[in-house]
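Can't attach files on this board, so I'm pasting raw text. These are the components:
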Amino acid sequence: MNYDAEVITTDVLIIGGGSAGLWAAKRFSEAAPERSALIVDKGPKDWGGLMTMAGGDFDAVLPGEDVDAWVQDLVYYFDGLCNQSDMEEILRRSGDRLRDYQKFGCEFFTKADGTLQSVPQRGLDHVRLYPAKLKGRGGELMVKNLVKQLKDQKVGRLGRIQITELLRHGERIAGAVGFDTLSGKFYVFHAQAVILATGMGGWKTSYGKNTPTGEGVALGYGAGARLMHFEFGRVWNMPRYFGWEGQTTLMPLGGRFINALGESFMDKYSPILGANTDPHYTTIAMAMEIRAGRGPIYFDLSRINPADTVLLRPQNGWQKLNYDKLSALGMDLFRDNTEWVPQMTVSYGGIDADIYGRTGVPGLFAAGTACATEPGVYAGGFALMTTSVTGHLAGEGAAAFLQGADSLPSTGQEAEIARLRTEAFKPLGQQGLKPKEVVTCIQRAMFPYDVSILKTENALLHALREIQRIRTEDVPRMAAADPHYLMKLREADAMAFVSELYLRASLARQETRAGHYREDFPQRKGEPRWLLWSKGAEGKPVATWKTVPLESYKHPVTRYYQDNFRFA
Ligand SMILES: Cc1cc2nc3c(=O)[nH]c(=O)nc-3n(C[C@H](O)[C@H](O)[C@H](O)COP(=O)(O)OP(=O)(O)OC[C@H]3O[C@@H](n4cnc5c(N)ncnc54)[C@H](O)[C@@H]3O)c2cc1C
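---
Top answer:
Structure tokens for the assembled complex are below.
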């Protein structure tokens, strides 16, 4: 092992090279071409984060469409919790990012007249996605094309380095430290500004959700940034025995879930929307059906028009591998009913940053899913849109910040760096719990239905006690055999942090709204409010409620998406 340190100086350090990080780097180097930008990712260099596995479907407001109409859809969909001013800015720029992708060579399905083919989302009037043409490889091609741009713009890119701490110079964030997850080499990055593009927190439910574990969100919190939307988790419906990309395009085209009696049960829970709705509502219904003894749940795609399967059948990539294996076993996803289950995947909790990624901590920016954007309901194609736009804007924000900021020296932090280095490697080569054992304990606490879907106070309190025990007893006892497992250890630590905030926030919100369903408080209560978290004394999270400032927004809240459902 080589535990030597390498010291690197850059103007902006972008932690995370997913959709948000790549766009942030691109925009920063366009806006400040004389300055240097460096992306550091714990995954392989240029792998592109979750986007590399994504279908590539993209939401966008195209020229001639009305941004306000989209915002109104989202005010309704988010049950009033929409940050209307930020959402308007994001949507206003979404068409530009779609056009950028087309310019880079990414293709989307078109109709006979040459215009883009769209798929409406979640029974909303205006929100729609544009499906990528190469089903199964759309996201991968987006990554390749973006990385090509960054090479042309001479953006530095490093892989296999996990960032463990941020550096400070006075009040300002001045870089970060981390280590090579293969060789163990220690890295010091001196930077004038840092963009956290580290993705969400989550619970490692499948290969598509292995990396979003929340270290970046925890780093932001530790540095003094506020967090929000922690009561919302993404509970998705997934096939029980294989991986699939969800049902974003399948539901609007006729896909539906049926129970063991063959009933299309969503018609009962929502006579208006039926099956064509948000997965968070479908999974509530799935849990209720299974609890009532009407499980298992199957996905029935037999009603999809055969002409439309061209939009859905994977032509390449990981989905094609799964599809071919299923075919070899005599199963066809588009012909046979397959068993599906609710799966708690990632947290919607993130950093409360403004539209330029400013976190309130000088020199610290955040972008993409590391920021809180959606309150637990999610339209297909939304993430590639929001992450590209917020990444782009954070790059612009960081460039503007550096124009007016003093230049920081890269000396004066030697003692702190030495301390962080000792701290980072402390668990290496020790005897102790394996990170995987701790991850399994966290998953056991978080996955019961009454913690993740049909939440109740008793179950949440029980899970909170267990997560607090894990944080105080198990996390400090973890050890790592090598740098790879040291990375896993850091991930498990962040997962425990995210889990505690999820539980505290879920307990605090004593109502049902958007993606948060409290079985013991099944109604909405009062004005829409956001729940924010900041670091209090001894690092303890302190909650603050903020009423959504409807008086300064364009659109009153007159309709609620949740009113389409009858669960209670
Ligand atoms: C299978 C699948 C299909 C999808 N399909 C679609 C789709 O068709 N349309 C759509 O809109 N969305 C889709 N999504 C969602 C979308 O791809 C993601 O939400 C989006 O790409 C997230 O981008 P991000 O940059 O915010 O985060 P991420 O992609 O998670 O990137 C964060 C990066 O930060 C790195 N990182 C984290 N912590 C550290 C650390 N401590 N040190 C260094 N690096 C770190 C990670 O390795 C990662 O590369 C899909 C997702 C999956 C998994």
